[in-house]
Write a structure and sequence with these properties.
mainly alpha, 14 helices
Length: 337
């Protein structure tokens, strides 16, 4: 029996073999220790995330591009084109690569500061980064990635079939599509190793520490697993700003958080996030050794989106079902100094 102090006074006892839960709301709230963050503070910290990480990175890219642009002798026609497609500004490619790299380092630092100061000294244990997934869960995580890629690209292709008017009718997705296409063209000229580093490794670590680690820690404990996962995933989508990417990110967030809960380890969503982004990068960069087969798969998805969607969802359903049936229990969370 473990003695603890609750609303009924000190000395209340709780069986030592109480079932373990990832969201032990009663024991924490009865102690008056609400895990951080709540929803309103999650919004505040999300704004802080953008201020601390993305604004400096964007400033570096912008200054780099401006210096290159004003030191380049260009005809008036080029200036008109750059006004419509800022990603094509000379120097923007290198500037964006450097800016993104800086932003990813700042993102990991920002998440670490919040985790250490608001979750506690044992934050690694609390968010599940102190343990690796079981081998079966590791393989299932890797198997889910093709399903995520197929399903997401199929949905994008289906939205594209609605035409420009259809896209505008559901939130200006055409604008987002144009931004993403411009970015992909820009990324195509990057060295694949550098692109994987700043577009796959960086976001997988920084965003997972912040979203599934920090935000999820408080939101799940306060609101329960279902509501907490949904709220965290919505915030994860909003963080991406571009409508088309935000919608996809929110859906991806549900899968990533499912991996976190099923495996008991934050490394599972980190791995899936990395693999998902890396496949996109390696299918875009011109020097990628596997670009051709990945482009071939993309062409198939574009021509047969319905079949690709069914295949992708099938993989996701099988993988998530296996993970849900073999999910691990976790040590009970506790407030930390």
């Amino acid at each position: 029996m473990t003695s603890w102090s609750g609303p009924d006074g000190p000395g209340t006892t709780e069986p030592a073999n109480t079932p373990r839960s990832i969201v032990p709301i009663p024991s924490l709230i009865r102690r008056g220790k609400y895990p951080q963050p709540g929803f309103l503070m999650a919004l505040v910290w999300m704004v802080g995330y953008w201020t601390f990480t993305q604004i400096p990175g964007a400033a570096i890219a912008l200054v780099w591009a401006l210096v290159s642009m004003f030191t380049t002798q260009a005809p008036a026609g080029d200036w008109d084109r750059w006004a419509k497609h800022p990603m094509e500004v000379p120097g923007m490619s290198t500037g964006l690569l450097v800016g993104l790299g800086v932003a990813q380092v700042l993102a990991a630092l920002y998440a670490w500061i919040l985790l250490r100061n608001l979750v506690g000294r044992d934050w690694k244990k609390q968010i599940g980064i102190d343990r690796l997934p079981q081998w079966g869960h590791l393989l299932a995580t890797l198997a889910l990635v093709p399903g995520m890629v197929l399903a997401s690209n199929a949905l994008v292709a289906m939205v594209g079939e609605q035409g420009l008017e259809g896209e505008a009718a559901i939130g200006g997705l055409q604008v987002g599509r144009q931004v993403l296409e411009d970015f992909q063209r820009l990324m195509g000229g990057w060295p694949s190793w550098a692109a994987v580093l700043v577009v796959a490794v960086g976001p997988a670590v920084g965003e997972e520490l912040f979203c599934r680690g920090f935000l999820g820690h408080g939101l799940l404990a306060r609101h329960g697993a279902v509501t907490g996962v949904v709220l965290t995933s919505i915030l994860f989508g909003v963080m991406h700003l571009v409508p088309l990417q935000a919608a996809y990110a929110a859906l991806l967030g549900l899968v990533l958080h499912g991996l976190r809960l099923a495996t008991g380890s934050l490394w599972a969503p980190i791995l899936a996030h990395f693999a998902n982004n890396a496949l996109s990068v390696l299918g875009t960069c011109e020097d990628s050794p596997i670009r051709d087969p990945l482009v071939g798969i993309e062409v198939w998805v574009q021509t047969s989106p319905g079949l690709a969607l069914v295949a992708g969802l099938g993989v996701l359903i099988v993988g998530l079902t296996y993970l849900s049936k073999t999910r691990v229990s976790e040590p009970q969370l506790s407030p930390s100094p």
